[in-house]
Design goal:
Blueprint (H helix, E strand, L loop, with lengths): L9 H41 L10 H29 L1 H20 L5 H33 L2 H32 L3 H4 L1 H15 L13 H21 L13 H21 L15 H35 L7 H8 L1 H21 L2 H20 L6 H28 L6 H45 L4 H9 L2 H9 L4 H6 L10 H7 L4 H33 L8 H4 L2
Length: 569
C-alpha cells in the first residue's frame, strides 16, 4: 500500500482507520443488497394485493416467478463482468455507482403508478435495475476488503462482510413480513434512507488503494458469458412452471433450447477466454486448487442453502403455522420470526470463525462447517411434519452455524489465492457461483418437491374434498391441477382450498359446515402433510448429499499459500 509519509505515524493511523471504514461501508452495502433479495419473497401477498393482481389467474404465475427469480438471475449473470470492470476502472468507483443505482431503483419501485399486469411489469423491470446496482456492490466489496486488510486479518473482515450478506437474506424475511403488514410499498421505502446514507458515506470515505490496470473490455467474453448464464437461469425459471399437460416445463422446447443453448455459449466463452489477449476472466485461476475447490464448495453449499430457505417457508406457512392456530394471511410474518434461529446461527459463527481461521487456517473451519451444515439437513428430514418447535429451532440454528463457519473462511481463502490485479474478477466469479447456486437450488429443489407431491397429492386431495361434500367432478378437477398452484398458495399465505375451489364457485354451493371445514386452518395442512413430507425427505436428502460433496471439495483444497503480493504485507 503506497502512502505519503507523515510525522508521528499519522499515515499508518489513517491507513488503519480506513480499513474499518471500508469494512463498515461494504458490510452495509452487502446487507442492503441481500435483504432485498428476500424481502420481496415474504411480501408477495401484500404486493399482489396492492397492485390488484391475482397471481393465480391464467398466465399470471409468470409474474410471480419473475418477481422472485429476476433479482437472483441478474446478480448471477453480471457480477463477473462488473468485477472485471472494477479491476480496469477502479473497484471503489464501480462499488459507489452501485449504491446510486440501487437507491434510485428503490425509489422507482416504491412509486409504482400502475395496477394489474402493468404494475407487475413495472416492479419486475425496476427490480432488474436494482439488481444491477446490487451486482456492482456484490462484485467489488470483497475485493475492496482484500485490498484494505492484511492477510492476518482478512478472514475476520471477510467473515463480517459475508455474514452481513447471508444474514440479510433471512432478516429480509422478517422485515418483509413486518413492513408489508403496514404497507407493501414500505418494503422498498426502507432501502431509500439506507441507500442515501450509504452512497454519501461511500463517496466521502472510500478511496482506490489498488493499482488500476487499464485494459480493453473483452466484449465477446462478456456477451457469451452473460447470454449463456442468463439462458440457463431463464430456462430454469420456466422449467418449474406447468407446460401443456405436464406438471412442470422441463420438456418444453423453450426450456430445452435455453439449457442447451446456454451450455453451448458457456463453452464458447471458455474458448474465447483462452484466445483473447485481455480476457474478462483468467480461466487459468481455476488451475489454482485453492481457488477451484473453494468455488466448487461455495456452489454446492449455495445450492443446498437456497433450497432450504424456500422449503422451510412453505413448510411453516402451509402446514405448521396453520396447525398451531395461525391464520394463513398472518403466516408469512410469523414464518420469518420462527426462522430467526437460522439468522442467529449465522451471526454467531460467521465473524468468530473468520477471526479464528486467520490464526488456525481455513480448512478445518470450512470442512467442519459443511459437515455441521449437512448434518442439520439429516436432522430436518427426520423431524415429523408437525414438529416440536425447540427441535426445529435447534436444527436450523445448527444449519446457520455450519454456514457461518464455512462462508467467511472460504471467501478469505478464495480471495487470498489470486493475484491482486485479478481480485475484482475473482470476487465476481465467486459471487456468480453463489448467486447461481441460489437460482439453481430453487429450480432443483422445487422440481423435486413437485415430483414428490405429484405422485401422492392428487389422490389424497380428491378423497379429502369428496369427504366434505365436494361433487366428484369438481374434486377430480381440483386434484388434477398442477401442484405448483397449491404450493405457491401456501407460499403466499393464501388458503390453497380457496385457490382450488374458489374460481369455480364450488365453495359457495356447499353447506356452511363443509365450507367452514374446507377453509379452516387444519383441513389443508392435514391433507397435504403426508405427500409434502415425502417430497421434503427427497429435498433434504439431496441437500445433505450436496453438503457432503461440498465438504469433500473443501477438504481437498490443501493449505493456501500467500500470493507474491502478500509476502510484502
Amino acid at each position: 500500500m503506497r502512502v505519503v509519509p507523515e510525522p508521528g505515524g499519522v499515515a499508518a493511523e489513517r491507513s488503519d482507520r480506513y480499513k474499518w471504514v471500508a469494512l463498515s461501508n461494504t458490510s452495509l452495502g452487502m446487507f442492503m443488497a441481500t435483504v432485498d433479495a428476500s424481502i420481496v419473497i415474504i411480501s408477495m401477498p401484500a404486493i399482489f394485493r396492492g397492485i390488484h393482481l391475482d397471481p393465480f389467474a391464467p398466465g399470471n404465475i409468470t409474474y410471480l416467478l419473475w418477481m422472485i427469480m429476476g433479482y437472483l438471475l441478474v446478480t448471477a449473470v453480471l457480477v463477473v463482468t462488473l468485477g472485471r470492470l472494477g479491476d480496469i476502472v477502479g473497484r471503489v468507483r464501480i462499488y459507489n455507482l452501485g449504491f446510486v443505482v440501487f437507491t434510485l431503483a428503490s425509489v422507482a419501485l416504491s412509486f409504482d403508478p400502475m395496477r394489474g399486469s402493468s404494475g407487475a411489469l413495472w416492479l419486475i423491470g425496476w427490480r432488474v435495475v436494482q439488481a444491477l446496482g446490487g451486482s456492482m456492490l456484490m462484485a467489488n466489496s470483497a475485493a475492496i476488503l482484500t485490498d484494505a486488510f492484511p492477510a492476518r486479518q482478512r478472514g475476520m473482515a471477510l467473515g463480517i462482510n459475508q455474514i452481513s450478506a447471508l444474514s440479510g437474506q433471512f432478516i429480509g424475511l422478517v422485515l418483509g413480513g413486518l413492513l408489508s403488514a403496514w404497507d407493501w410499498r414500505a418494503v422498498f421505502w426502507v432501502n431509500v434512507p439506507v441507500g442515501v446514507f450509504g452512497t454519501i458515506w461511500a463517496y466521502r470515505s472510500l478511496r482506490e488503494i489498488s493499482a488500476r490496470r487499464p485494459a480493453r473490455i473483452d466484449w465477446w467474453g462478456n456477451v457469451t458469458f452473460a447470454l449463456g448464464c442468463g439462458m440457463i437461469l431463464v430456462a430454469i425459471t420456466y422449467g418449474i412452471q406447468p407446460y401443456g399437460g405436464h406438471t412442470m416445463g422441463w420438456s418444453s422446447p423453450k426450456v430445452l433450447t435455453g439449457l442447451i443453448g446456454g451450455a453451448a455459449l458457456l463453452i464458447v466463452f471458455g474458448i474465447v477466454e483462452t484466445r483473447v489477449a485481455q480476457p474478462m476472466f483468467q480461466l487459468r485461476l481455476f488451475r489454482n486448487r485453492h481457488f477451484a475447490a473453494g468455488n466448487a464448495a461455495s456452489l454446492l453449499a449455495s445450492v443446498a442453502r437456497g433450497g432450504l430457505q424456500f422449503m422451510l417457508i412453505i413448510w411453516l406457512q402451509g402446514i405448521w403455522l396453520p396447525l398451531h392456530g395461525y391464520d394463513f394471511e398472518d403466516a408469512p410474518l410469523w414464518a420469518g420470526i420462527f426462522l430467526l434461529p437460522l439468522t442467529a446461527g449465522f451471526l454467531i459463527a460467521g465473524p468468530l470463525s473468520g477471526a479464528l481461521s486467520d490464526r488456525f487456517g481455513v480448512r478445518w473451519f470450512t470442512t467442519g462447517g459443511l459437515l455441521v451444515f449437512g448434518a442439520s439437513f439429516v436432522g430436518l428430514l427426520l423431524l415429523p411434519i408437525d414438529f416440536p418447535y425447540w427441535a426445529f429451532a435447534l436444527l436450523v440454528m445448527c444449519n446457520g452455524i455450519g454456514s457461518g463457519m464455512f462462508s467467511a473462511p472460504n471467501t478469505s481463502a478464495i480471495m487470498s489465492s489470486v493475484p491482486a490485479e485479478h481480485r475484482g474478477a475473482a470476487s465476481g466469479m465467486r459471487s456468480t457461483f453463489q448467486n447461481s447456486g441460489m437460482s439453481l437450488s430453487i429450480g432443483v429443489f422445487f422440481s423435486l418437491l413437485i415430483v414428490g407431491l405429484a405422485n401422492r397429492l392428487p389422490g389424497a386431495l380428491e378423497a379429502g374434498l369428496r369427504g366434505q361434500g365436494v361433487p366428484a367432478g369438481a374434486a377430480h378437477h381440483a386434484a388434477s391441477l398442477p401442484p405448483v398452484s397449491t404450493v405457491f398458495s401456501a407460499f403466499l399465505g393464501i388458503n390453497p382450498v380457496q385457490t382450488l375451489l374458489g374460481p369455480s364457485g364450488t365453495l359457495d354451493r356447499l353447506p356452511a359446515h363443509n365450507r367452514s371445514v374446507l377453509t379452516g386452518k387444519e383441513f389443508f395442512p392435514h391433507l397435504i402433510s403426508a405427500p409434502f413430507h415425502h417430497g421434503l425427505v427427497i429435498v433434504f436428502a439431496t441437500a445433505a448429499v450436496m453438503a457432503l460433496l461440498a465438504a469433500t471439495a473443501s477438504a481437498l483444497r490443501g493449505t493456501p499459500k500467500p500470493t507474491a503480493s502478500e509476502t510484502a504485507r
